[in-house]
Amino acid sequence: MREEMVEIPVEGAGPLPCFLARADDFPNPSVVVVQEWWGLNDQIRGVARRLAGERYTAIVPDLYRGAVVEHPDEARKLAMELDRPRAVADLRAAVGWLLEHGVPTIGAMGFCMGGGLVWALAVDDDRLNAAVPFYGRADLEGKTLRCPVLAHYGAADRGIPPAAIEDVRHFLKHQPYASEVFVYDGASHAFMNEEYDAYRPDAAALAWQRTIQFFRNELGES
């Protein structure tokens, strides 16, 4: 596995720094990993490394272009200030970069703020082959999926009530792709993030296993 930072040109926004955890057989099936509201920190780099360990190349666009924070108030401010259409354009640029380098299939995977952006990408970019949002809020009314989706939510997530998850299920029933929603009992928001008290190792391990199998099915294997 090889790690490096790459820069991708984005029209009207300047260069987009990205962390790349590259499988040995690159170009191969690849995943765009979308950060939480903390920025491009060590934890999200770790997610990319885990994907590379599963023989996928992972690219993590730095949507804040350098800013990384640790306190929730600072993260909330950065997330609120983020221009969402521009962030989706950044993600589209990462997809384009991968295609230019010859990768055969592309997935997207994101957490919290990144989960919402993965939903946005999944209804915006028909070059995507699979999408996995973790506890992402979704604005799906009137939209059409461009790829299959595997969505993960915590049953104890106070920010995403059961009614919102049912809305997602209802939306998926009327889409052209076979998709699935999993809800994890006792898990709250950020149950995948091992650096925080909300981490639930059993739920996280099961969600990861399901995600990798989903990517195997939709993206193929190296």
Please outline the helices and strands:
Blueprint: E1 2-8, E2 16-22, E3 30-34, H1 42-53, E4 57-61, H2 72-81, H3 84-100, E5 106-111, H4 113-122, E6 130-134, E7 150-154, H5 162-173, E8 180-184, H6 201-219
Parallel strand pairs: 3-4, 3-5, 5-6, 7-8
Antiparallel strand pairs: 1-2, 2-4
> What percent strand?
15-25%
| Cα radius of gyration in angstroms | 16 Å
What would you give as the CATH superfamily? Alpha/Beta hydrolase fold, catalytic domain
Structural class: alpha/beta
Under CATH, the topology can be stated as Rossmann fold
Number of domains: 1
Low-confidence segments, ≥5 residues, pLDDT <50?
none
Secondary structure: number of strands: 8
Strand order of the largest sheet: 1-2-4-3-5-6
Fraction of residues in helix:
25-40%
Distance between the termini: 13 Å
**Count of alpha and pi helical runs:** 6
Could you spell the SSE succession in H and E letters? EEEHEHHEHEEHEH
CATH top-level class:
Alpha Beta
Features:
two-stranded parallel sheet, 36% helix, alpha/beta, 6 helices, six-stranded mixed beta sheet, 222 residues, Rossmann fold
What do these coordinates show?
The chain has 222 residues and is α/β, with parallel strands linked by helices. It has one domain (2-219): 3-Layer(aba) Sandwich (Rossmann fold). It is 36% helix and 20% strand. The protein contains 6 helices and 8 strands; from the N terminus they run E-E-E-H-E-H-H-E-H-E-E-H-E-H. It has helices spanning 42-53, 72-81, 84-100, 113-122, 162-173, 201-219; strands at 2-8, 16-22, 30-34, 57-61, 106-111, 130-134, 150-154, 180-184. The strands form 2 sheets. The chain has a 6-stranded mixed sheet, with helices on both faces. A hairpin with a 7-residue loop joins strand 1 (2-8) and strand 2 (16-22). The longest helix is centred in the C-terminal third of the chain and has 19 residues, at 201-219. The radius of gyration is 16 Å and the shape is globular. It starts with a strand and ends with a helix. The mean pLDDT is 96.
